[in-house]
Design brief:
single chain, 179 residues, mainly alpha, 63% helix
């Protein structure tokens, strides 16, 4: 029975230099937040172990990477929120995604404000892609409207926006409600 070559080699436990190299390699390859970098480093420490006396603080290393400018939570939040808005997600879902990525409230605030400002356009984009309301071929029945409302709610849009779009007649795009 052939074994994978990866199972044959022993990976040495991490030391301070190796842990720092892992952190640098991760931040150069991926856009990340402090929390996600710390989670990655903690996982690597569990997998490979530590060769020193006292295990290092992964959060402290992530903070150091941020202080050096390698990790930017605010920039990460802006980028992630912009990508989600372009996919049609609403402010609530964007807030959940940023919280899951470990973004602090003060770093997430500008991104969430932008998401709220672009919520109507994001809802229209999602409705266009899913053929809901004004972008549907025919007016849906009650079950179809409820399904469309569910799609918009799961995407993070508020109930009023979801209803306005789901109940719109095909071809008639409702005006933005700026109340």
């Amino acid at each position: 029975m052939a074994q994978s070559w990866r199972h044959d080699r022993q990976v040495p436990p991490l030391d301070p230099a190796a842990l720092e190299r892992l952190a640098l390699r991760y931040v150069e390859r991926y856009a990340t937040s402090r929390a996600k970098l710390a989670q990655y480093l903690q996982r690597k420490l569990r997998e490979r172990g530590w060769s020193g006396d006292e295990a290092p603080d992964a959060h402290a290393l992530a903070e150091r990477m941020a202080s050096l400018g390698y990790v930017d939570d605010r920039g990460f939040a802006q980028s992630r929120a912009g990508a989600l808005v372009r996919r049609g997600y609403g402010p609530r879902r964007i807030g959940q995604a940023l919280k899951a990525a470990g973004i602090r409230e003060e770093d997430a605030a500008p991104a969430q404000q932008d998401a709220r400002a672009g919520a109507w356009d994001a809802a229209l984009d999602l409705a266009r892609r899913k053929r809901i309301g004004p972008f549907a071929g025919v007016a849906p029945d009650r079950a179809g409207r409820e399904k469309a409302i569910g799609v918009l709610l799961r995407a993070g849009h508020d109930l009023a926006t979801a209803r306005r779009l789901a109940e719109a007649r095909p071809g008639e795009i409702p005006e933005r409600d700026d109340r």
